[in-house]
């Protein structure tokens, strides 16, 4: 303790259960500050996955279906999960196989960008499943982003060089006196 006090540091007990207990001489305030910075940096870099929902009906028209599929694809490419819901009204509830066909078609259309996280199940008048982004797709997007960043870094110095402006051709340029009055 005397050595720590002479040097202006703190004596911190690292492992109290060891025989003999292990202590370390350090600036405890600085240690706490760096730990707090590390935690805030880790929190800043974490990705928050949201669950986006897209609703279908058993008889959704083709154009609406394509638009909704495009939205699901965008959600998955942004690394969000998508909850796909098929809503039944009235007598449609007796034809659950139509909802199952819609969900199977969605899975087939999105097989390269999505994996099924939760298979189709009924909950009241709604049939739903949850799709998650395909891990291989996410990795390929990261690789493309790194390549683009590397290409931009190498192209940036070349872009700063500017060519001289071309001079105007006096013969081709009309003047005010050339026109007929």
Q: What does this protein structure show overall?
A:
- The chain has 181 residues and is an alpha+beta fold.
- Among the domains are: 2-36, Translation initiation factor 3 (IF-3), N-terminal domain (Ubiquitin-like (UB roll), Roll), CATH 3.10.20.80; 51-136, Translation initiation factor 3 (IF-3), C-terminal domain (Translation Initiation Factor IF3).
- The protein is 44% helix and 23% strand.
- It contains five helices and six strands.
- It has helices at residues 2-7, 28-45, 62-77, 96-109, 135-159, and strands spanning 10-15, 22-26, 51-56, 81-87, 114-123, 126-133.
- A four-stranded mixed β-sheet has the order 3-4-6-5. The protein has a two-stranded antiparallel ribbon with strand order 1-2.
- The longest helix has 25 residues, at 135-159.
- Residues 158-162 have low confidence and may be disordered.
Rg calculated over all Cα atoms = 32 Å
Largest sheet: 4 strands, mixed
The top-level CATH class of the domain at 51-136 is Alpha Beta
**The CATH fourth-level homologous superfamily of the domain at 51-136:** Translation initiation factor 3 (IF-3), C-terminal domain
Gross geometry: elongated
CATH fold type of the domain at 51-136: Translation Initiation Factor IF3
């Amino acid at each position: 303790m005397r050595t720590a006090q002479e040097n202006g540091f703190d004596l911190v007990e690292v492992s109290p259960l060891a025989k003999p207990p292990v202590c370390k001489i350090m600036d405890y305030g600085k240690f706490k500050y760096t730990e707090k910075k590390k935690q805030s940096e880790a929190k800043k870099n974490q990705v928050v996955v949201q669950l986006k929902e897209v609703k279908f009906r058993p008889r959704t028209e083709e154009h609406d279906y394509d638009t909704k599929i495009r939205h699901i694809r965008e959600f998955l490419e942004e690394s969000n999960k998508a909850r796909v819901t098929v809503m039944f009204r009235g007598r449609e509830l007796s034809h659950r196989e139509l909802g199952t066909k819609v969900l199977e078609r969605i899975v087939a259309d999105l097989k390269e960008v999505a994996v099924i996280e939760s298979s189709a199940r009924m909950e009241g008048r709604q049939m739903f499943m949850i799709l998650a982004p395909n891990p291989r797709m996410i990795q390929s997007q990261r690789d493309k982003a790194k390549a683009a960043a590397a290409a931009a870094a190498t192209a940036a110095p070349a872009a700063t060089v500017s060519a001289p402006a071309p001079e105007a051709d006096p013969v081709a340029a009309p003047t005010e006196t050339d026109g007929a009055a």
